[in-house]
From TrEMBL:
Signal sequence annotation: none
Residues that hold heme according to the record: C442
Family: Belongs to the cytochrome P450 family.
Transmembrane segments: 5-21
InterPro entries: Cyt_P450, Cyt_P450_CS, Cyt_P450_E_grp-I, Cyt_P450_sf, Insect_CytP450_Detox
Organism encoding this protein: Acrasis kona
Keywords (A to Z) from UniProt: Heme, Iron, Membrane, Metal-binding, Monooxygenase, Oxidoreductase, Transmembrane, Transmembrane helix
GO molecular function, one term: heme binding
Protein name per the record: Cyp4x1
Amino acid sequence: MLTSLLVVGVLIVIIPLYIWWKRMPYAHIPGVTQLGPFLPIKLPLVNKYMGGGAESPALEQLFRSGFVKDGVLRITACGVSRLFISDPDLIKDIALTRAKLFPKPPVYDILNIWGENIVSTNDSAWKKHRVVADPAFAENHMNYLVKESAKCINLSINRMEKSRSAFGLVINATEEMQDVTLDIIGKVAFGYDLGVFAPKDPVQPHKMTFENALKLTMTLGILVGGVLPKWARRFFPQTDIALNETELYMRELIKYRMDNLYDTGKHDLLSLLVSSNAEQIKETSLTDQELVSDVFIFLVAGHETSATTLSWMLYELMLNKHVQDKMYEEVKTVLSGLKFDELTVDTYEKLTYTKCAVTETLRKHPPVSGVPKMTRTDTTIGKYLVPKNTEIYLDVAQVQKNEKYWPDAKTFKPERFDPESSEYHKVKSCSFLPFSLGQRKCIGSKFSEIETAILIAYIVLNYEINNPKGDVYMNSKEVLQGDIRTESRITQSPLGLRVELKKRQA
């Protein structure tokens, strides 16, 4: 008993001393220190030291980091110090001016389920992935995306209408948008119908449909496959099956594209990617394993980003009727009478106000709250000396809602992005970065913006978006203060968002 008490006493002394010692190189940077990690619950008495629940001092500081002096905030937890950068000039320095000194950190290794990919790599390895992928994302290939997006939202509308009751049509917007974007990514990325709107059984030798395998892989599978050693997967049997099935499906699709390399009728992303890879010399081409990993990244990022942005757009349109009405007048003018096969990127470009609304949604509700980087050497950020191998985060959420750069930042105002509007606000350089900045900006950002605009345009063309009776949402200015819960997946999406869709009269 005495020995145990002695050990506990020693630990009580040593742990704080260790954390204090680890914090010393960062002590000159303003911030907050806590002994423990961020915990999901509040712990009595020790909460201010252990960081449990929403009242964690570190979290409180983080949510206010956009207003921290000099735009640099240090948070030290468990002896590890991280910096959050919310000043646009410092963000520009890190992401553009001195980008080579701030590579991707090891935190991205969680995405290496099937090996390194375009997101997790740095330097020459990243360039190899980028050279192969660039042609597939060229804007002249986006006409196929526009057409397929319109066709898929029509399938979604048909399915939603079947659930209409005598009391109207109320949907779980979060789930519906995840389904329609999954359907699109299957067809546009793979040229494959996942069966989202026409369920089908798995075909031998498969144990699971591609749709079900992907859904599980993109949630629990990323954690199980990206963090746990392979032997530990047996404790998650369904997830293990999903991971194996997802890889098998992707390998089959890649092989089929390789066997039909010169089929010029294929416009899906995978066909373009395989074709681009075949044109590279051996030293710069990707292996089959690297292709599998890249395709999965494009699928996850494309699906999650668009689904999340669409859900938040429905939320904002529900609460801002004047925006919805203005958007309806535009989409009615641009889309009425057009057949799906007549749609092109030029159609998208004509949706000027809708595009502004998409951009404003990305400002107010960025898909990710921060972009992780790491210092390659001892360096300076602003006036602060920062040690080598320090994790830093470009604080997207805070810089994009800072009144200093965005007047009336809590208000949903698409006009701020319309140069022809009196509300137009000239964006300060590097204060808008929902897809990051510079060479490492998301390669699929245009893909996501086009997909989101076409989908929301057809929803608004067909429906008036209302707040369901009995559901109470606060003014949209307060969305980040707790009126709607969010769900952290790959992105930060609204949890269980319900909207009422009222059919517009023809």
